[in-house]
Amino acid sequence: MRTRLPPLRHHAWRAILLLLLLADAYPAEPLDDAALGKLVAAGRAELEAALPARRAGTPVDARPGTPVDAALGAIGVPPRLRARAAAIFDALPRFDDTSGAALNAAAAQLVEGSGRNLPRGAAPPLPTLRAAEFADGLWKYVLLEVTDAGGASRRLARNYADFAYHAEMAKEATRRELGGFPNVTVLGGGRVRFSAARRTIEIYGYSKTYGRCRTCNKEAAALAEASYPGFAVTWSNEGY
Fold it and tell me: Which of 137, 157, 155, 240 minimizes the C-alpha distance to 198?
């Protein structure tokens, strides 16, 4: 014989609805700093767009009701974790959109080191390095001059997906493959629109952080032609 349960009263339904809302706002699996950092990195463009006019040394304002607080919510950061997420975002290097000047300590250190302040491993032979390495999509790039222990030098063009600034591209190049060389100099940079599917490479613009380099895009195009035979490569100094 089945026992029929009494119908839920109005206050019981309200309690269930409240529990569902809390479950949505406070996920069962709490975000640790590593996971929160990935969330912030993925939503970096949205967070940058939410910042007001930026000045050097100005901390990120993520108080409730601010544009940054709203952007943190939009990328999926729960309210209780937004202060931590804002601190993680604030620690990322930030540069002025107009002048390219460093706006915080992380950006200043990045430019000053040009990606060289890393533990050094064994340097591969310069001739074995690919002249150009580009990520699919539209990203900034840097033109680097790399010198080995014997004094030989070579120029390389590099960029990587998911990095916002030229200084970050330089640091990532050193981290991945150039850490063993005694000198890596950033000559300049611009932007690369790379399509492996269409076999096209478009190089244009300039770097505000490292200054204009009239020959960088032309040199990067030549390096791209050497590394990507069969691709249609174009370059220009126009745009940003």
Answer: 137
Query: What is the C-alpha to C-alpha distance for residues 69 and 50, in angstroms, rounded to an integer?
Result: 9
Highest mean pLDDT among 9-13, 100-104, 156-160: 156-160
For the chain, what are the domain ranges?
A: 10-92, 113-235
* 189 three-state secondary structure: strand
Query: For residue 200, what are the contacts with CB-CB under 8 A and spacing of at least 6?
Result: 193, 194, 231, 232, 233, 234
Neighbours of 108 (CB within 10 A): 16
CATH fold of 113-235: Pyruvoyl-Dependent Histidine Decarboxylase; Chain B (3.50.20)
**pLDDT over 70, % of the chain:** 78
> pLDDT value at position 166?
93
DSSP symbol at 194: E
Q: Tell me, what DSSP letter sits at residue 13?
A: H
What residues pair up with 202 in beta bridges, in sequence order? 193, 234
Per-residue model confidence as pLDDT tens digits over 191-216:
999 999 999 999 999 998 888 899 99
Residue 62, pLDDT > 90, answer no
